[in-house]
Structures are given as structure tokens and as C-alpha cells.
Amino acid sequence: MLFDTHVHLNDPCFDEDREALLAALPQKGIGLAMNAGCSLETSKQALEMAAPYDWLYCSVGSHPDSCDEVNDDVLEEYRKLCKLDKVKAIGEIGLDYHYEDIPREIQKKAFIAQMELAKELDMPVIVHERDAHEDGMNIIRQFPTVKGVFHCYSGSAEMAKQLVKMGWYIGFTGVLTFKNARKAVETAQAIPLDRIVIETDCPFMAPEPFRGKRNDPSLVYRVAEKLAELRGISAEEARRITFENGKRLYRID
Q1: What are phi and psi of 207, to 5 degrees?
Q2: Is the per-residue pLDDT at 99 higher than 90?
Q3: Which residue of 93, 100, 116, 187 is surrounded by the most CB atoms within 10 Å?
Q4: Cα(138)–Cα(199) distance, rounded to whole angstroms?
Q5: Residue 207, pLDDT score
């Protein structure tokens, strides 16, 4: 079985066939999936979507693109949602300086506030960090007891080694299968297998040979296959290892 550790199944592009897709995923080898919230609204959607499925869990949090919504009221909503069994992490939270739609100081303030909530509740976090490596590392170092995953990892192998030493996991998407994915490949070869999780981040970044098409959890097997190739293990072993890693990351029995 496979654990797709980061999906966005409430994205509008799934509106026409979501129910059929969800029903079919267990037969396609998906044993577990984590539907990540990006705002208060999408976090509630993710929770509602996870309710009918034993294998689907969710996280709650405000992505850098939605971080201007973070205030005491929103944090209190997240605090309440985190008490529910289906909610296994706070995220995705973090920093995104690539487009910088929201000023950096607002992003950092929201990131810190949500890290403080994770510390208070003893919850793992899902971090989105793009072109903000130094500030991202500086903030997580302020919270040594908070652990989680840098999803869709885009940093260097050296930075990933530092994160692993701090107890973090590294998430790889279909980017790992791209021909120009030098940094991702180097990182996947450099860090311990017990700290690697795989994800689609669907509907984005479909792996080869499906690049450019709508992504969904049924394609996460390609990330496992590429990881197996890079590490000289069988695809079955890559599936097993990353499945157990995901369960450990999100504290799923």
C-alpha cells in the first residue's frame, strides 16, 4: 500500500469526479492519504471530506498565500479543529517568497503563530517553504520541540541533512521524476530512508510520464518507483518504508 502524504482533493478541478475518484483509490493501492488545508475554509473542507473514509486524514492551517487571515479568532478555530480525530497536523504553513503575494513580515508572523499553536498542542506541522530557506530555518529553530515535514522539498541536500538531524521528515513529489530535478535527486540520495515521505501534492506536478496532466493520488506510485531506483531497493520496499514513515510522521496507528 501507498501513503500519499500531501493532497488537495478539495481543489475545484476534482468537482466533477471527486466521489468516483475517492471510491477507487483503495483499489489503486492507496492505503492512506493526508488532505492538507491551506486556509480556514479549505481546512474545514478537508475535514468534511475525510469524515466518510477510514484511510483519509486531514490537516488544518493557513498557507503563506492565505496567511493574512491568521488572527486570534482563526487560531482558536484551528485549536478546536485539532481536537478532532481526523486532524493529524497543522499545515500547510510556512513561507513563500517566490511570488511574495503577501509581504514577508506578515508571512513570518503567521508562520510563527501557527508554530506556537503546534507547540501548545503537541502537533506535527506541514511546512511549505519556497525561496525562503534562511528565514524558514531560523523560525523552526525557535521551536525545537515542534517536528513535521518540509513538503514538496525544494532546498539543498545539505539543508535536508540539517532538518533530518533536527527530527524532521522530507517530502518528495512527482518533481523527483523530472529530468531536470537535480536538487531533488541529490537530496533523495543523501538522507536516511526512514526520513523520506512521498506525496503527489495533487492536483499539481504530476510525475512522468503524466507531467502536464491533472495529478491525483493514484500516481504517487511513480514517486515510490523513482525513489527505489535512486536508492537501489525494490519498489515494494520503497512503498513499505515510506508508508511506515508517513504513519510515524502523522502519528497514525
Answers
A1: -70, 160
A2: no
A3: 93
A4: 25
A5: 97
